Amino acid sequence: MAHNLETNGDEVAFALRGTPAWHNLANRIFSQEEMVSTQLMLDEAKLSNWNVSLSPVADYIPESWNDTSGAQYVTRTNPFNGGTDVLSVVGSRYKVVQNEELFSFADNILDGDSRCAWESAGSLKNGKVVFGTLTVPREMVLDPQGANDKTKLYLIVWTSHDGSVAVQAAITPVRVVCQNTLNLAMRSAKQSFKIRHTQTADGKIQIARETLGLTLGYFDVFEKEAQELFKSEITDKQFYDLIRTIYPKPAEDSSKLAKTKWENKVILLDDLYFNSPTNANIKGTKWGAFNALTERLDYFRPTRKNNSESKWASASGFDPIITAEKNKILQVVKSF
Fold first, then answer.
1. Which of 213, 239, 259 corresponds to the end of one domain?
2. Quick one: 37 and 184 in the same domain?
3. Is residue 55 in some structural domain?
4. Could you tell me if residue 284 is left (phi over 0), alpha (psi between -120 and 50 degrees) or otherwise beta?
5. Do residue 117 and residue 147 come from a single domain?
6. Which residues contact 6 (CB under 8 A, 6 or more apart)?
């Protein structure tokens, strides 16, 4: 499956309202005008009634073995055929989070705001990772009389059933025209919240709400940064100098492969900046330069074995390495 969604024959554990925000999936179920309830989104994404539970590994080994590990199987009810799946093996301190709890967590963070709407939900890695996204009633429009470059705000919740991902909630600005996430780790405003799988979500809702309640402050900071970049002009030469500063040209004695990779990267960035319709209205500004550079990271960055899960994590804002690289790019762009 191109985006690592869980499938069974022609069925897919994914539901979507309207156009996806950061992945080009076309499994459209709800129209943009529909208001989708939490339960309906869970049902249509095949995330309901998984009954995720723990079963001691010791129960399944020979009596002659002395199990001191305390390890447990994480099991669920398969959403396609009703059978029982073993999703992973975890330690004794692991606490289960049901999909329903994750989505309720998101609802509670937003305090039942009717202006917020479920956008998408799904299961990845054969049920090991689940996610949901909601629109947040806040958007930014740069120069409404001219460029009309719009950025919307989303709340993403994400967790795993194998201990690899904590219960997470994050606010993600998404540039609508290219569906490019613009996560920036700004010091003055918090963006995300995590709960370990050795804890429970109980009692954490208010803390998360207070933390993510600061996200409008985050978006204010983000908007100020974007406005400053949009108002700053940049010449074609400066853009090429910018590329070479961030991605230095290989030395003459470098391998042919290294030189070819660099040349291909420069050609792609040139195309994204000068020719892509996603940059048509913001070319010639630092905002346009920043977006071309980050769009490459989200959608055109080569990954090992074409790892679509890695690209999904990057474009969803959950890859700290990519977020750090975007922050580095921002600082270089601002300094030009």
1. 213
2. yes
3. no
4. left
5. yes
6. 12, 13, 46, 122, 123, 124, 125, 126, 127
Exposure letters 217-251 (e unless 16+ CB within 10 A, then b): ebbebbbebbeebbeeebeeeebeebbeeeeeebe
Q: Is residue 146 part of a domain?
A: yes
Full domain range(s) for residue 316? 227-335
- What phi and psi values does residue 164 have, to the nearest 5 degrees? -80, -25
Asked whether residue 264 falls in the same domain as residue 118, the answer is no
SS3 117: strand
pLDDT in tens, 34-69: 778 889 999 989 999 999 999 999 999 998 898 888
In this structure, the answer to whether residues 203 and 310 fall within a common structural domain is: no
Residue 275: which pLDDT band, with cuts at 50, 70 and 90? very high
Cα-trace Rg, the chain: 22
Number of domains making up the chain:
2
Coil vs helix vs strand at 191: coil
Helices (H), the chain: 38-44, 99-109, 205-212, 215-231, 236-246, 256-274, 286-295, 308-316, 320-335
pLDDT on residue 21:
46
pTM of the prediction? 0.76
> Can you read off the two tokens belonging to residue 143?
């120069």
Shared domain for 239 and 204, answered yes or no, is no
Are 207 and 310 in the same domain?
Answer: no
Number of Cβ within a 10 Å radius of residue 136: 22
Residues 161 and 201 in one domain: yes
**Is residue 80, in this structure, part of any structural domain at all?**
no
User: Is-contact 155 109, C-beta < 8 A?
Assistant: yes
149 shares its domain with 271: no
pLDDT-derived band at 238 (thresholds 50, 70, 90) equals very high
Burial of 37 (0-12, 13-18, 19+ CB in 10 A): exposed
Alpha-carbon dihedral 24, 25, 28, 32, rounded to 10 degrees: -30
Q: How many whole angstroms separate alpha carbon 242 and alpha carbon 245?
A: 5
Nearest residue to 288 via CA among 276, 301, 302: 276
